[in-house]
């Protein structure tokens, strides 16, 4: 952060833009490993991204996940365009942490819940990294706000 201008580094904007695109891309991948019975043999069911799951079952947890993804992408997009409010990174941290918890707990699935695919693991890691990054951004915004509210030294 530049003390003279009080600006937050532009790196956050670039990272938020990339994370928004990656978040959208991950939603089109299967997050959970499923098997279907074909006769007496169980085979992997490679389909069923978040959007396919929403279209077929529309379970409450899937709807909540889709809404959280839409909120997260909207906040990441706002952050990518240089939002200087501390509310944007805090919102990003909350939404990404909630998505990580939602994917890791797998609510709405029968016991035992399905295993995570590699894309499911990527989604959890991305959520954690996004939350940590946005908390760091919020700290930078708070430091900027604190440094701009302190009066300059009035000594002659």
Tell me about this structure:
With 156 residues, the protein is mainly α. It has one domain. It contains five helices and two strands, in the order αββαααα. The protein has a two-stranded antiparallel sheet. A hairpin with a 2-residue loop joins strand 1 (34-38) and strand 2 (41-45). 24% of the residues are buried. The chain crosses the membrane at residues 57-79, 86-106, 118-139.
Largest sheet: 2 strands, antiparallel
Can you count the beta strands? Answer: 2
Uncertain runs: 1-6
Number of continuous helical runs: 5
End-to-end span in angstroms?
Answer: 27 Å
Number of domains: 1
The radius of gyration is 20 Å
Which class best fits the helix and strand makeup? mainly alpha
Shape: elongated
Order of helix and strand elements from N to C terminus: HEEHHHH
- Average residue pLDDT: 82
Looking across the biggest beta sheet, what order are the strands in?
Answer: 1-2
Q: Proportion of β residues?
A: 5-15%
- Helicity, as a percent range: 55-70%
Please give a quick description of this structure.
With 156 residues, the chain is mostly helical. It contains 5 helices and 2 strands.
Layout of strands and helices, then pairs:
Elements: H1 11-27, E1 34-38, E2 41-45, H2 50-56, H3 60-80, H4 87-105, H5 118-149
Antiparallel strand pairs: 1-2
Helix pairs in contact: 1-3, 1-5, 2-3, 3-4, 4-5
Task: Give short descriptive properties of this protein.
single chain; disordered N terminus; mainly alpha; 156 residues
């Amino acid at each position: 952060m530049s003390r003279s201008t009080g600006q937050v580094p532009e790196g956050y904007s670039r990272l938020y833009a990339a994370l928004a695109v990656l978040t959208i891309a991950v939603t089109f991948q299967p997050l959970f490993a499923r098997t279907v019975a074909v006769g007496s043999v169980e085979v992997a069911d490679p389909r069923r991204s978040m959007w396919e799951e929403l279209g077929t079952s529309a379970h409450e947890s899937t709807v909540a996940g889709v809404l959280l993804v839409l909120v997260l992408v909207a906040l990441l997009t706002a952050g990518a365009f240089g939002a200087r409010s501390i509310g944007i990174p805090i919102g990003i941290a909350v939404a990404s942490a909630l998505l990580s918890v939602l994917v890791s707990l797998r609510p709405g699935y029968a016991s035992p819940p399905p295993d995570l695919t590699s894309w499911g693991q990527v989604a959890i890691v991305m959520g954690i990294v996004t939350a940590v990054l946005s908390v760091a951004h919020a700290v930078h915004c708070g430091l900027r706000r604190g440094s701009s509210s302190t009066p300059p030294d009035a000594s002659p």
